[in-house]
Amino acid sequence: MLGVLSIGVALVAAGTGFVGAVKYAVLFAGLFWFSAAFGYLTRLRPQHRVADLGTTTIAGRRATEIRYSGAQFALINVLVACLFLCAVFAVWDYGQAGGGAFAPGIPTLLAAVAALFFASFFVLVALGRIRRGRVILAADGIRQEGRAFESFLPWDSFAGIKPSYNGTREILVIAYSNAPWRKRQLAGPWKLDKLPPVPMIEIDTIHLAVDPALVYHLLRFYTENPGAREEFGTEAVLRRVQEQSF
Predict the structure, then answer these.
(1) Quick check: 118 and 87 in contact, CB under 8 A?
(2) Confidence band for 100, pLDDT divided at 50, 70 and 90
(3) What would the DSSP string read from start to end of the chain?
(4) 170 CB-near residues (< 8 Å, 6+ apart)
(5) Fewer CB within 10 A of the end CB, N or C, for the chain?
């Protein structure tokens, strides 16, 4: 509704000669609509996309990966792009206003800082420090490549697995407190997700397009059955998922 209202504002602005306001109204309409789409993907859409579970290689070895939602990541990029364009247009418009605007240098500077901040998001995407995200199951352990962090724990460090709820449904693969935990944040101020406070693989299932219950049983099976981990990176894992033979 707010997006429709913004388009109405754009039409009124165009009809009354305030052409400069049209681009902002259209960008705000996009922000509202893309935010609504993100809410739908994270809160309402059925998580039945088994295609986001597949095979990969890590350090030259076969592995199985559970990918984060690609549609969600695309929408995050589009939302930041809208904010970036708003800031860039503000820099241009205040620069064109010159001395005719009240203290033009201050808002121009603030808009330029905002534009640089939003531009840094795409620099980090290009560098791979902000990414779609995935969970990788390999013979040596579980790797979690979040949208803005990475984490690794070996299989023998896990004490158990349980479902949890912290505003959204989560899967916690809990490790011993002295586990050799390799972790790091990657994206500076862009904390799209964050590491847990203690050694564990914490999967916020809101990021997934795969059924969280399926992912939970898959992780639990391989946590409790070391001999089956030789299946990683093969079609056997996918068959097990399709047949739900956990």
Answers:
(1) yes
(2) low
(3) -HHHHHHHHHHHHHHTT-HHHHHHHHHHHHHHHHHHHHHIIIIIS----GGGEEEEEETTEEEEEEEBPHHHHHHHHHHHHHHHHHHHHHHHHHHHHGGGSSSTHHHHHHHHHHHHHHHHHHHHHHTTSS---EEEEETTEEEEE-SSEEEEEEGGGEEEEEEEESSSEEEEEEE-TT---EEEE-STT--SS---SSSEEEEEGGGBSS-HHHHHHHHHHHHH-GGGGGGTTSHHHHHHHHHT--
(4) 163, 164, 202, 203, 204, 205
(5) N
CA angle, 54 then 58 then 59, to 5°: 165
pLDDT digits (tens, 9 = 90+) for 113-171: 999 999 999 999 999 999 999 999 999 999 999 999 999 999 999 999 999 998 899 99
Record the pTM: 0.90
